[in-house]
Write a structure and sequence with these properties.
With 788 residues, the protein is mainly beta. It starts with a helix and ends with a strand.
Length: 788
C-alpha cells in the first residue's frame, strides 16, 4: 500500500512536468454579502470540463493548458459567474458570489457544480444551515445534532436526545470537530440540546463512511463544523428570544476587508423564571438550572497569501440546590451543585506557498470537565452551652484536556490530482474521577483514580485521482501512534473510495476504510450524562478498531434532487462496556477493572433523497439495519442486539417557502423500538405475613440481554414562520408544535408489582406488569427572531 501511494505521488508530479505548457489559476471564493468563505464551491473550465472545488477556507487552485478558457464559478443556491479570457500566465482571481433569488434558485444547477454522482466521497451528509434553522425545533431551540438524526444511518439515544449513534456505533465513536477542535461533550441538559449555536455556524458535514485519510481517531463518524468568520464589510447581527433561552450574535469589520470578528452567546433562563416560584413554595430553598454557550472568532488577512484565525468556544451547564434551615438553637446550611462544560480554542495560520500548494498550521486546546460538590454546615449549642460548628465537604472531579499541534497541506498539481498530506501531535490529560472528602472531624481524603497522560501522533497522505472521465478514486493512508504509561500502540489505516460514472447522471460508488480509536467513553446510560468518563487505551485496555465496506449508487435527477442508495458492512473490535453491576460510583476500584472489551457488527441499507433548493425543499431518508454486540463476560458470551439496534428508521423533512413573508416546515420520524432487557420471572422468598416482621423479598430472573423491544417510536413536528422584511434586516415570529399528535412514545419500561395474594394451595404470589413511561406530550413553542 505504501509503495502504491509513493508511485502515485511520483506520477502526479511527472505528468505535470512532461505535459504541454500550463498555468495555474488560484484564489478564494466567498459570499458577496457576509464575506464568509464558500466551502466546496466549484471552479471549472467549460471548454474542457476540467475543474476543482474550494477547500474549507474557500481556497481553490486549477492548472490548465494555455489558451482560451471559459472559467465558471458556482455554488449551490448562488448565482454563478463566468470569465472568458486567454490564459497565458499564472493568475489570481478573487470571486464574490451572491445568493440567488427564490425563483431563480433551480437554475443554478446548470453551472455544473460538482454533483453527488461525480465526487468520490460517499456516505456524506451536508444540510445547509439555512434549512436546519427552518426545521421545527424542540422548545424553539434550533439544533444541528437533531437535524443529523433525521438522516439515514443516524439515530438518537432516545426521546429528546441530541446524541448520535451512527451505523451501529456509540456516541464516543463520533469525531465532532468545531473549527478543527474535538468537542468531547456535545450536549446540554443531559442530551436534550446540543452545544452548537446555529447562528454562529457556517457549514456542517457528516461522514458516516468512506473516510478520507485526513480524518482519524474515531471509528464511526466525523461531524466537521465550521464557525462563521465574521463580516469584513459591515456590522450586523441576529438573535432570538424563546421560551427557555435567548441568543445574540454580532459580527463586523475591525479593519474593513482585512480584520473581522464574530461573537455569539446563548443562555437559558429556567433558573431565573423558577426563582420567584420557589420562593413562594419554600422560603429557604433555592433550586436552579441553566446552561450557556459563547462562541467568538477573529481573523485577519495580512495578504492574499497569509491569513490567521483565532476562535474559541466556552459552554457550561449548572444545576444547584441551596438550602438554609433554623430550628431553636440549630442552624444548618447546605449547598449542592453539579457543573460540567467544554472549552475549545484554535489558532490557525493559512499560507499559500505557491499557487498549487496551500498550507494550514493549527494549534488547539480542548477541555471537558465535570464537577459536583456538597457543602454542609451546622451550628448548634452543646450541653455545656458552647457553640459548636461542624462542616463537611465532598467534591468530585473528572474530565479530559487536549493540546494539539498539526499541519495540513493541499497540493493541486493538475485537475486530475488533489493531494492532501499532513501530521499532528496530541497531548492528552485524562482525569478518570477523584473524590475529595473533608470535615471538621477528619482530614482531607482523596479517593479515585489518578491522572493519566498520553500522547497521540498521526501522519496522512491522500490523493483524489481522476483516472478517466468515468473513473475517479481517492486513495490514501492514515498512520497513527499512541503512547501511554510504558505502552505504545501503532496503527496503519488504509482508505480507498471511488466512483464510476455509468452515465452523466448516475454513478456507482465503493469505499473501504479502517479506523483506530485510542480513547473510550465509559457510560451506564443512553442519556448524555456528565458522569460519563473519557479514558485512554492502556496496557490493559487496547484500542478500538473498525473496518467498514460501503457500496452504492448516486444520481442527480433533473438538477434538483440528489438520490443515493447505499449498503454498508461494519465490523468493530475491542468495544468497551461496564461489567454487570459496575459504574463510575465504585471509586474504590480502578476503572480498568470495571470494564470488559468485545466486538460488534452492523450492516444495512440506506436510501436518501434530498432537495436543497426551490420553494419546496427537504429530504426523505430510510434505513434498514442490524447491529449486534458480543462480549465474553456479558450475556453468557452470546451475541446480543445492541440497545440502539433499529430495524427500520424513516424520516421525512419538508420546508415550504410560500413567500418572503411566510414559511412552514414539518418533520415526521418513525423507528423500531429500542432493545431492552426485562425480568421474565419473579420469585418470592420468605413470608410477607410472618409474625416476626421479616417479610419477603422479590428475586427477578432476567431475559437474555436486549432480547425484547419497546414499542415503535413516531412523532410529527410542525412550525410556521411569519416574516416581516425590513430595510436593514428582518423580524420573524416562529410558532411550533413538538409531537403534534401527542404520541406517547416510550422513554423507558419498568415493572410494577401488585399486592401479594395467596392462591388455592396457600402459596404466596405477586402479579407483575410492565409499564411504559413517556416523556413529552405535545409541546408548543414560540420565539421571536431578528436580523439587522
Amino acid at each position: 500500500m505504501k509503495k502504491i501511494l509513493f508511485v502515485l505521488f511520483l506520477i502526479a508530479n511527472l505528468s505535470t512536468a512532461i505535459a504541454q505548457k500550463k498555468y495555474t489559476i488560484s484564489g478564494y471564493i466567498r459570499d458577496s454579502v457576509s464575506t464568509e468563505s464558500l466551502i466546496a464551491a466549484t471552479v471549472y473550465n467549460a471548454k474542457t470540463m476540467a475543474g476543482t472545488a474550494t477547500n474549507q477556507y474557500g481556497f481553490y487552485s486549477l492548472t490548465l493548458a494555455e489558451g482560451e478558457i471559459d472559467l465558471n464559478f458556482s455554488y449551490v443556491g448562488y448565482s454563478g459567474k463566468q470569465f472568458s479570457f486567454t490564459l497565458e500566465k499564472d493568475t489570481i482571481i478573487l470571486v464574490d458570489l451572491a445568493e440567488s433569488g427564490l425563483l431563480k434558485e433551480v437554475l443554478i444547477e446548470g453551472n455544473k457544480a460538482e454533483k453527488i454522482q461525480e465526487t468520490t466521497q460517499m456516505s456524506a451528509i451536508n444540510i445547509p444551515i439555512s434549512q436546519i434553522k427552518a426545521l421545527p425545533a424542540f422548545l424553539g431551540e434550533v439544533d444541528l445534532m437533531k437535524a443529523l438524526q433525521l438522516t439515514p444511518g443516524v439515530q438518537s439515544g432516545g426521546e429528546g436526545s441530541s446524541g448520535l449513534y451512527v451505523r451501529g456505533g456509540g456516541p464516543d465513536q463520533n469525531l465532532i470537530l468545531l473549527d478543527g477542535v474535538p468537542v468531547y461533550n456535545a450536549s446540554h441538559l443531559f442530551g436534550f440540546f446540543s452545544v452548537f449555536n446555529a447562528d454562529a455556524i457556517n457549514n456542517m458535514e457528516l461522514l458516516k463512511g468512506g473516510f478520507p485519510a485526513r480524518y482519524g481517531g474515531r471509528t464511526s463518524s466525523v461531524v466537521d463544523i465550521n464557525m462563521k468568520e465574521g463580516n469584513s464589510q459591515k456590522f450586523g447581527g441576529e438573535g432570538s428570544i424563546g421560551l427557555v433561552s435567548s441568543k445574540l450574535t454580532l459580527e463586523g469589520p475591525i479593519v474593513k476587508d482585512k480584520t473581522s470578528f464574530i461573537v455569539s452567546g446563548r443562555r437559558t433562563y429556567i433558573d431565573l423564571l423558577a426563582k420567584p416560584l420557589m420562593k413562594m413554595l419554600e422560603e429557604d430553598i433555592d433550586v436552579g438550572y441553566y446552561f450557556y454557550d459563547l462562541n467568538a472568532k477573529i481573523n485577519h488577512k495580512f495578504s492574499n497569501k497569509d491569513r490567521i484565525y483565532l476562535s474559541a468556544y466556552m459552554g457550561d451547564d449548572k444545576f444547584y440546590v441551596n438550602q438554609k434551615d433554623e430550628w431553636n438553637d440549630l442552624k444548618s446550611e447546605s449547598k449542592s451543585n453539579i457543573k460540567w462544560g467544554n472549552i475549545t480554542s484554535a489558532f490557525r495560520w493559512n499560507h499559500i506557498y505557491n499557487n498549487k500548494l496551500f498550507g494550514n498550521t493549527t494549534i488547539t486546546y480542548s477541555q471537558f470537565n465535570f464537577n459536583t460538590g456538597v457543602d454542609d454546615k451546622e451550628e448548634y449549642m452543646n450541653g455545656n452551652g458552647d457553640i459548636v460548628k461542624d462542616y463537611s465537604k465532598i467534591k468530585y472531579n473528572s474530565g479530559i484536556k487536549d493540546w494539539t499541534a498539526k499541519v495540513d497541506f493541499d497540493y493541486l498539481p493538475s485537475p486530475d490530482h488533489y493531494i492532501r498530506f499532513g501530521a499532528s501531535s496530541i497531548f492528552h490529560k485524562f482525569s478518570p474521577g477523584a473524590m475529595g472528602l473533608k470535615s471538621s472531624e477528619e482530614a482531607d481524603t482523596i479517593l479515585g483514580a489518578s491522572n493519566i497522560h498520553a500522547r497521540q501522533y498521526s501522519l496522512y497522505l491522500e490523493d483524489d485521482i481522476r483516472l478517466t472521465r468515468s473513473l475517479k478514486i481517492n486513495i490514501g493512508a492514515h498512520v497513527s501512534g499512541f503512547s501511554v504509561r510504558d505502552k505504545f500502540y501503532a496503527a496503519f489505516e488504509p482508505r480507498l473510495s471511488g466512483r464510476y460514472l455509468i452515465n452523466k447522471e448516475l454513478s456507482a460508488k465503493l469505499s473501504y476504510s479502517r479506523m483506530t480509536q485510542y480513547i473510550h467513553l465509559l457510560t451506564n446510560s443512553g442519556l448524555s450524562l456528565p458522569t460519563d468518563l473519557w479514558v485512554p487505551s492502556t496496557d490493559q485496555i487496547v484500542p478500538q478498531k473498525s473496518d467498514q465496506l460501503a457500496f452504492g449508487l448516486a444520481k442527480d435527477f433533473q438538477g434538483e434532487y440528489e438520490i443515493s442508495l447505499e449498503g454498508y458492512y461494519k465490523k468493530m473490535y475491542n468495544l468497551v462496556e461496564y461489567k454487570e453491576g459496575s459504574s463510575f460510583f465504585d471509586l474504590g476500584n480502578a476503572w480498568e477493572n470495571k470494564v470488559v472489551q468485545g466486538d460488534g457488527k452492523s450492516y444495512g441499507l440506506e436510501f436518501f433523497v434530498q432537495k436543497k433548493l426551490g420553494k419546496l425543499s427537504g429530504w426523505l431518508g430510510y434505513t434498514l439495519s442490524w447491529t449486534d454486540r458480543q462480549f465474553d463476560e456479558l450475556n453468557k458470551g452470546q451475541k446480543f442486539y445492541y440497545k440502539y439496534d433499529r430495524r427500520h428508521d424513516l424520516s421525512l423533512a419538508l420546508l415550504y417557502k410560500k413567500s418572503e413573508k411566510f414559511e412552514m416546515s414539518a418533520t415526521w420520524v418513525y423507528g423500531t423500538g429500542n432493545s431492552i432487557t426485562i425480568p421474565i420471572a419473579t420469585y418470592q422468598t420468605g413470608n410477607p405475613f410472618s409474625p416476626d416482621g421479616q417479610g419477603s423479598n422479590s428475586v427477578n430472573e432476567y431475559s437474555d440481554r436486549n432480547a425484547y423491544r419497546m414499542n415503535a417510536y413516531h412523532r410529527l413536528d410542525v412550525s410556521a414562520s411569519f416574516i416581516r422584511p425590513r430595510k436593514n434586516g428582518e423580524r420573524r415570529w416562529v410558532i411550533g408544535l413538538y409531537n403534534a399528535y401527542s404520541r406517547s412514545n416510550p422513554f423507558y419500561v419498568d415493572i410494577d408489582s401488585e399486592n401479594y395474594f395467596r392462591d388455592a394451595k396457600g402459596s404466596y404470589k405477586s402479579k407483575n406488569k410492565f409499564v411504559q413511561y413517556s416523556l413529552f406530550p405535545v409541546i408548543p413553542s414560540i420565539s421571536y427572531q431578528f436580523k439587522f
